[in-house]
Amino acid sequence: MLQSRRPFRTRPASPRTLRAAFVLALTAGIATAVPTAHAGPAQAPPANPAPAVAAKPYMGWSSWSMQSSKYPGLNPDGDYSYLTEANVLKQTDALAARLKQYGYQYVNIDAGWWRDNAWKPEFDDHARQQADPHRFPDGMKAVADRIHAKGLKAGIYLPVGLEKEAYGGGRIPIKDAPGCTTADIVHGDLRTTNGWDSAYKLDLSRPCAQKYVDSQARLLADWGYDFLKLDGVGPGSGKSGDQYDNVADVAAWQKAIAATGRPIHLEISWSLDIGHAADWKKYSGGWRIDTDVECYCNTLVSWENSVDDRWDDAPAWSRHAGPGGWNDLDSLDVGNGAMDGLTKAERQSYATLWAIAKSPLYTGDDLTRLDSYGLSLLTNREVIAVDQSAAPPARPVTPADAQQVWAARNPDGSYTVALFNLADAPAAVTAHWASLGFSGRAAVRDLWNHENLGTYKDKVTEALPAHGSRLFTVTPHGRALTATAYEAESPANTLSGNASVADCSACSGAHKVGNLYLGGSLRFNDVVVDRAGTYLVKVAYVSGDARSAAVSANGNGATTHKFPSTGDWGTVETVSAPITLKAGANTITFDSGSGYAPDIDRIDVPTS
Question: Cα–Cα distance between 348 and 86 in angstroms, integer?
Fold first, then answer.
């Protein structure tokens, strides 16, 4: 990793986090039976019987969580000193013995393999990283061979760009590129790039630059590596602007890897710009969507720094994942108990989100000392099957409030449904079948506990501890729910403040109501139901970031709901919110209050 070093967070970073960053920088759905947001056609598996690279989210182990932690004993010879050949091979043996049978296969060596404990680098005669002889005395090929001997795959790490220390005054020759030197592969002004400005930006308009990437890829292939994490990639990683735009670098790496003839999985990191999702999908097999999950403290992670951020950040990316490329939520550190820094409930919720989001499942734990609970989380075959299945990633079907329900429709017509209580105190969470598009009865299976819970009518409710979760398969036996649609742009509605009708090609009526900010509001008039009661109203909306709105009926007290990001301002998603209505005509109001609300496309109100 030379990974995300986390200075760019929504919460202030801790002093230890900032210090680590500084050191590395210096050294370096109701109306229909199938809700539109969740029930798209499942993507078919590849026809080729030999699995393609990134056909499914990859599974394995990564060194970064332990080498970056202050946990006593992990890094006895200084920061990041955990990363050694002996430790990698110890984890390889443990992965083969304990997790390989469950699908875990990658052993990924992260940042520092070419640097000593003082972070001094090693390069070959062609400006390519070479193993530090103290960390990896037998060299990187020997390590890959040992990993392969266990029936596993070997992964390695590089930062994007030409590292400053490798420049050599511009005189270093590029391998298999007569006449090319390091001066010929970067911009003349030596502009820097990557998340820490530790490298010069490659000028890929110059043929020598592609030759350099080709030579790096050939070296990794000759060593026998099956996976490359390319880190510090932008736009993203807390940086923007032309010098941090590494789309061309990722494309060059894809081309170079293909030229080697070796199927190397290319994973890019970190906190990447969703505006370039199409590029990441085109050129790589996976992309980090967020900052590091590690806390850079005396445990591997902590709930608030930043495991919990993923519930806010994953929904926007959900539609971009599928065979060939996956949304990477970072390491899954749930196996080591106290060293993880989490409660049991938090560990289960962490693993649940990773599985339903179809993130790669790679743990950063010490596999030689997994506790029994952690081992049960990492080896639950039903939960792993959710991650590895042909279903799309889940996303919220309720607002992104403290109690949330996420769901995805499976190819067989069942639903994967997760309940989360993200509050700091126990609370009940209810999954209403109406949010999945049907009513009546459904069979419920508890995936963590391998237990059929029986048949439930219209909903299932669970009491959850703080930061707790449940994960179910819900199989409908009821009927499709019918609803009445009300378009936001209807002239029968009332707009207040800055609210206005805007074009929206993705919206159901080709229009939406936007500019709901600083007091702007939208009131749906004449919403008619036959009977008084609480209705689960599906709201279709557009929001490039997560935004909140106060929702009320008939002028009664409002409830503020947070709407998950749809990823951009041209994509429509839905969530369902309970609203109490009277028999006859009602009004339903969305008010921005003193903030900014999402744009509203329409609402669907159940007919009963």
Answer: 31
Number of separate domains in the chain: 3
200 plus 263 within the same structural domain: yes
Check residue 295 and give its pLDDT.
97
At 306 the pLDDT is 84
Distance of alpha carbon 393 from alpha carbon 387, whole angstroms: 8
Mention every residue, 6+ apart, whose C-beta is less than 8 A from residue 108: 60, 61, 62, 63, 155, 156, 157, 227, 229, 362
* Beta strands per DSSP E along 395-510: 395-396, 403-409, 415-421, 427-432, 438-439, 441-446, 451-457, 459-464, 468-476, 479-480, 483-487, 494-496, 500-503
* Per-residue model confidence as pLDDT tens digits over 197-243: 999 999 999 999 999 999 999 999 999 999 999 999 999 988 999 99
* Amino acid 155: pLDDT: 99
* 139 pLDDT more than 60: yes
pLDDT of amino acid 8: 29
Residues 138 and 218 in one domain: yes
**Rounded-to-integer distance, Cα 14 and Cα 9, Å:** 10
Report how far residue 325's alpha carbon sits from residue 292's, in angstroms, rounded to the nearest whole number: 19
20 pLDDT more than 70: no
Q: CA-CA distance, 403 to 191, in Å (whole number)?
A: 46
Tell me which residue of 279, 277, 191 sits closest to 241, measured CA to CA: 191
If asked whether residues 342 and 255 sit together in one domain, one would say: yes
Cβ atoms of 288 and 270 closer than 8 Å: yes
Residue-wise burial string across 5-29, b where 16 or more C-beta atoms lie within 10 A, e elsewhere: bbbebeeebbeebeebbeebeeebb
Choosing from 447, 463, 480, the residue where a domain stops is 480
d(CA 89, CA 140): 12
Closest among 395, 307, 386 to 347, alpha carbons compared = 307
CATH number at residue 194: 3.20.20.70
Whether the Cβ atoms of residue 210 and residue 254 lie closer than 8 Å to each other? no
- What is the C-alpha separation between 19 and 32, in angstroms, rounded? 52
How is 64-96 classified by DSSP, letter by letter? HHHHT---TTTSTTSTTTT--HHHHHHHHHHHH
Mean pLDDT of the chain: 92
DSSP code per residue over 488-537: TT-TTSEEETT-EEEE-TTSTTSEEEE--BTT-EEEEEEEEESS-EEEEE
Per-residue confidence (pLDDT) for residue 121, from 0 to 100: 98
Per-residue pLDDT averaged across 172-197, rounded? Answer: 98
The pairing of beta strand 227-231 with beta strand 265-268: parallel
- Taking the C-alpha atoms of residue 84 and residue 467, their distance in angstroms, rounded to an integer, is 35
User: What is the pLDDT, as a whole number, of residue 79?
Assistant: 96
For the chain, what is the largest distance between any 2 Cα atoms, rounded to a whole number of angstroms? Answer: 82
Q: Are residues 416 and 387 in the same domain?
A: no
Distance of alpha carbon 476 from alpha carbon 483, whole angstroms: 18
Quick one: tokens of 578?
């309970």
Helices 139-149, 207-223: axis angle to 10 degrees equals 50
What is the per-residue pLDDT for 14?
A: 36
**Residues 6 or more apart from 255 whose CB is under 8 A from it?**
210, 213, 214
Tell whether 429 and 549 lie within a shared domain: no
Task: Look at residue 271 and tell me if it is in a domain.
Answer: yes
Measure CA 65 to chain center.
Answer: 17
